[in-house]
Amino acid sequence: MSEHHKKLKIKTPPHAAAGLKGVTAAVSMVNKAMGIPKAFKILSHLNQKDGIDCPGCAWPDPEKRSKLGEFCENGVKAIAEEAMDKKAGAPFFTQYSVDELLQKDDYWLGQQGRLTQPMVIRQGQTHYEPIAWEEAFELLGSSLNALPSPDDAIFYTSGRTSNEAAFLYQLFVRMFGTNNLPDCSNMCHESSGVALGHTLGIGKGSVLMEDFYKAEVILIMGQNPGTNHPRMLTALEKAKKHGAKIVTINPLKEVGLVQFKNPQSPSGMLGKGTHLTDLYLQIRINEDVALLKAIMIKLLEIAEDKPDVLDEHFIETQTIGFQALKEHLSHLDFNTLVERTGLSEKDVLELVRLLANHNKIIACWAMGLTQHVNAVDNIQEVVNLLLLKGSIGKEGAGTCPVRGHSNVQGDRTMGIHERPSKALLDKLASSFGFEPPREAGYNVVEAIEAMYKEKGKVFFALGGNFLPAAPDTHYTAEALRNCSLTVHVSTKLNRSHLVHGKVGLILPTLGRTDRHIQKSGEQFVTVENSMGIVHTSHGMIRPSSKDLMSEPEIVARMAAATLPNSNINWLYLIEDYSRIRELIEKTIAGFEGYNEKLNKNHGFELPNGARKGIFNTHNQKANFTINRTSSIELEQDEFLMMTIRSHDQFNTTIYGMDDRYRGIFNGRKVIFMHPEDMAAKGLKQEDRVTISSRYDGLIRKVEGFKVVSYDIPRGCVATYFPEANPLVPLHLHADRSHTPASKSVKVKIEL
Ligand SMILES: Nc1nc2c(c(=O)[nH]1)N[C@H]1C(S)=C(S)[C@@H](COP(=O)(O)OP(=O)(O)OC[C@H]3O[C@@H](n4cnc5c(=O)[nH]c(N)nc54)[C@H](O)[C@@H]3O)O[C@H]1N2
Ligand SMILES: Nc1nc2c(c(=O)[nH]1)N[C@H]1C(S)=C(S)[C@@H](COP(=O)(O)OP(=O)(O)OC[C@H]3O[C@@H](n4cnc5c(=O)[nH]c(N)nc54)[C@H](O)[C@@H]3O)O[C@H]1N2
Ligand code: SF4
Ligand SMILES: [Mo]
Fold this sequence. Notes:
The chain is α/β, with parallel strands linked by helices. It folds into four domains: about 15-80, no CATH class; about 90-190 and about 435-600, Rossmann fold, CATH 3.40.50; about 190-400, Dimethylsulfoxide Reductase, domain 2; about 640-750, Barwin-like endoglucanases (Beta Barrel), CATH 2.40.40. The strands form ten sheets. It has a six-stranded mixed beta sheet, sandwiched between helices. It is globular. Bound molecules: ligand MGD (2 copies), iron/sulfur cluster (SF4) and molybdenum atom.
């Protein structure tokens, strides 16, 4: 019996995260996937200088690395998933038709092992079959060149791609003639990029690790680091020891933020662990702007008697828009705002007191703020608070959008962007002697729409699992099926391979742990973490098949096959990745002396204006903004649904069927509800319900979800991503960033 046919079990969530249970969960998974000797080889190099950068999240490594192991439970799971011994080669694809594979769930698909050779499925065929690499590139090149316009091709990127592959990719795509470079950022931190770029002049965070240890208050908003950035808990524990107060703002009591047992310390493993959050505010979904406004109203009130509560000098010399914000807040009512949040006045005032009495504040956030219609407003409001306090551009203070994929930030730095800056395009033009396209390309939402309307004809994905990651699953499936060619560069089988265009290609690639050998010898790649540190990653495992090709090589061969007359010798570049880095060096700001810096040191910090108090905005100042609270109106029988990650998944990759930290075992099709909401609807624990959303005249439904009574604000519910994605309409997205609003979908729940 496969694991997912076991009966759902619901237990009381644990009191603390990590500890011994985390270690045993990770060891058991890695042992099953590859055995201990291989696991030991990888893990002893994981996140060490000169070692393998963890393919999990983008949390940075501390300067001093623990020899006991510098990784977390979910890093080990990421390794087990990527470097598993099992293989899904040609015999596997002969055994199962695509229709049969479509009946399997995502967990099963991932368990079938590493892809081993290129596969193709042509119109009318039921099964994928092998194709030689040469033939695959010919097919790709001829399909791209046959398009009426380069804008009919779409080139997606997921954030595990290295700097080297990403740079070559965007160069090729623009030489081919389009800016259609949607990426996973579009569904992730795009809202942060837009908000921070506008207000502070850089679309990235401003803090470094050491700032955590100098901060007085750390706000953690809309983020669940215990699961998604586990080593952040170690940093928070250390910050606390240095005196920081930690405030969490989240609809759910996420256990990792409550209590943490550090697996890297014996006292953490065996003792009670550290109580992390000092003030836990269980806010209603999408009411963060209301809370921040309420706080700022009080801070301004206090400042009338105690002016040093605000950083008046900073506000006067470095910012624009303070008076307008003050005027705006003066028309709002504190009590009405607090009421919206669902929080007690006492808790809100406690936070006001903390913020009034301290000046070094770091604000961290992730998807709980970025995936709403007013997501850009959320983040701009966080910036407003930091600006009032002068908490930016100084030690121990600033913005910390915690990035998701391990190199998603680097991919953007390398130029993966559907709306590239003029500066980047000018530089590409002068460095490579061609005129890049100047019109904006498609983001993820626009790309889906274009494919649906048969305007996007070739879809190429450098990593990722586009179909289940995207909103509106059935619409997106239709969009992909409308393509003439879909191509996926992947390490593992996933659902996107099974919903293909008239022709579908799977190009199997090396993962982070695999050794890259090229003509000049063994190679390493580079990545950028969430705090803007660029460093190396050396794969060291013998690839599971000799027919795997590295991502830079796949991109180079696609480019050579498509643009035989280009003035770039693509194949020469991939013989030695330092040649690609030389091109990056002369094109991308901050990479001067790239190879040299890497030879001397393992990593270096990229320039960051906001970190230094220099704001490269349109007016060279930090900008206060006026932002909108949520405009969502719920009907009587509606709930606001957020789609979140379990502890046993990495996005669409399902590691297992448990969510230990929320007490859920053997199941993912669950909906978390407040017990009184359940009672009001006559629902009992484990009742099977249909969830539906009603937007643009359509009713979207998912069935067979089990109700779980949970500590969540009334009127709010939670489900797991990607199971609930069919409920997220394509057009429900943040209005300035196009990030799907997958944390605020209005739903109805019926037995
Ligand atoms: N193990 C593991 N690690 C991962 C990933 C993974 O899937 N698994 N994914 C990676 C990626 S790509 C990303 S982007 C990150 C995602 O990291 P997170 O953003 O931590 O992931 P989510 O599960 O989406 O969690 C969102 C959190 O926001 C809260 N939230 C939802 N709506 C609101 C709201 O309106 N206001 C507030 N204040 N809070 C809200 C939820 O309760 C939840 O705790 O993690 C990365 N790391
Ligand atoms: N409802 C809802 N939807 C969401 C979210 C949400 O919170 N709620 N979160 C959104 C977010 S934040 C993100 S980032 C996106 C994620 O969207 P994606 O990045 O597209 O999805 P992943 O699940 O991370 O992609 C996993 C696949 O990547 C491939 N892969 C793994 N490693 C490598 C590698 O090294 N190279 C290559 N070429 N391929 C590799 C494997 O084949 C695997 O199946 O989903 C978004 N969708
Ligand atoms: S915190 Fe993130 S990067 Fe670090 S080991 Fe865990 S999953 Fe990997
Ligand atoms: Mo993400």
